[in-house]
Amino acid sequence: MGADQHIVMLPFMAHGHLIPFLALARQIQERSGFKITIANTPLNVQYLRSTISKTSTNSNIHLAELSFSSTQHGLPPNTENTENISLSEMSKFFHASSSLEAPLRQLVSDITNQEGRPPLCIISDVFFGWAVNVANSLGTKIISFTTCGAYGTMAYVSLWLNLPHRSTDSDEFHVPGFPENHRFHRSLLHKFLNDADGTDVWSKYFQPQILLSIKSDGWLCNTVEEIEPLGLEILRKYIGVPVWTIGPLLPPSALKKSSSSDSSISIHGAGKEPGMAAEKIVKWLDLQEEYSVVYISFGSQNTISETPTMALARGLEASGKPFIWVIRPPLGFDINGEFKAEWLPEGFEERMKESKRGLLVRNWAPQLEILSHKSVGVFLSHCGWNSVLESLSQGVPIIGWPMAAEQSYNSKMLMEEMGVNVELTRRVESVISWMEVKKVIEMVMNREGKGKEMKKKAAEISEKIRRAKTEEGEEQGSSVFALDEFLRTTSSTKRQFSFR
Ligand code: UDP
């Protein structure tokens, strides 16, 4: 495996994809010394550049701008990331992303001309099945990278391809590829999927893209062999190409054993400015008891409605537990606008501040730093896969509030397969009562019963995750092995890959 190889990477334009792609680029680079070029639209390249410059020196990771004009697709100017898009315009954005095909083709051709041979491979987001055509026509290999877990990916792939809920009136149904006795409930489906019939805008995007991605030379999956046995077994069987489990794509410092607070994890998603300095948050966490804090965040782009915002605040206050809550304006308001006091119970923020009971962090928090602190006891999360891995890697159990994408399948798997999650509710527009919030928090944070069991299971998973990333010697972890195996197989001249 020569170190003079070049890999081109193409993430989907969302923070939940850019962050693990960048982490993957770093790990490939460290392991192989290969040159990496991450290609994306200009504003996302800007974000990646600022993240890279804050966190590394001497990197052989390069960035390439692919031209993209959102207005040409009927989107507002400078719309290049899902974080700026309303749900009603999301399908337009997905379809518009296919216009990156021509600039990607140009980039790969330019690299081929400059270097006298095509890049070793393109690692493209699983959402960009069209990259398979680019790679095939330019004589390079193509690997699809799913930033989701194996179970969530399998559910998303099979649900979109088969639309099994269309052939039954029942609320519960079987999803092809899953074991016969495994049932999905209709309420797990996002409205877009529930309404899909194969002719709608979403089916028209996902079905061809998934079918193309299945034709790639192999898949990389941001998970760990030992924590998702079912998901991996069925995904491999269903798509029929190798699946290398190279997760979790977290900074190595996040996987070090540490029994105290660790403020060295200052790297993840660093291109975005947090609403409160990490040092201030860590200082506050240092004052709290071990496993006592509830951390609440709904990922990089979600928010909840006004009424549940109130209920969540009341439930948190009534629970008596300390908390850190990443707040954004509720649904229907400008998500990047100012957060107004009227969206919370009267005097809430002042009361929490005076009593040092809670921290409200506006818009963006240093999530991994928070989760890695020993004071954090539970994560109230939308179950985005990065958040799930970040939480489990630190042994923190989850209270689920899945909202979109594959989050509800993740939440189901976390409950049924892993036993580390209690779902508070489902869907972005969901209505909850403060009493329910209080009850669930108390149950999960209880040091006896269900809470104790969840904590124990989360700690076991955290250990498996750490082991999977062990680098050298006889004890080499499964994720390190899989990454090496992927690099070895891809570097070999044959296009036929073998399974692990
Ligand atoms: N994130 C963060 N601070 C925030 C919100 C999100 O650092 O305030 C990071 C989080 O650590 C994770 C990513 O953004 O790495 C969100 O990805 P995830 O898959 O959890 O959810 P998505 O945003 O894709 O829905």
TrEMBL record:
Q: What is its EC number?
A: 2.4.1.-
GO molecular function terms attached to this record: UDP-glucosyltransferase activity
Is rRNA-binding given among the entry's keywords?
A: no
Q: What class of enzyme is it?
A: transferase
Keyword Glycosyltransferase present in the record's keywords: the answer is yes
Q: Which domain of life is it from?
A: Eukaryota
Q: Which UniProt keywords apply?
A: Glycosyltransferase, Transferase
Q: List, alphabetically, the SUPFAM superfamilies matched.
A: UDP-Glycosyltransferase/glycogen phosphorylase
Glycosyltransferase N-terminal domain residues are 7-251
**Membrane-crossing residue ranges in chain numbering:** none
Protein family membership: Belongs to the UDP-glycosyltransferase family.
User: What is the protein name given in its UniProt record?
Assistant: Glycosyltransferase
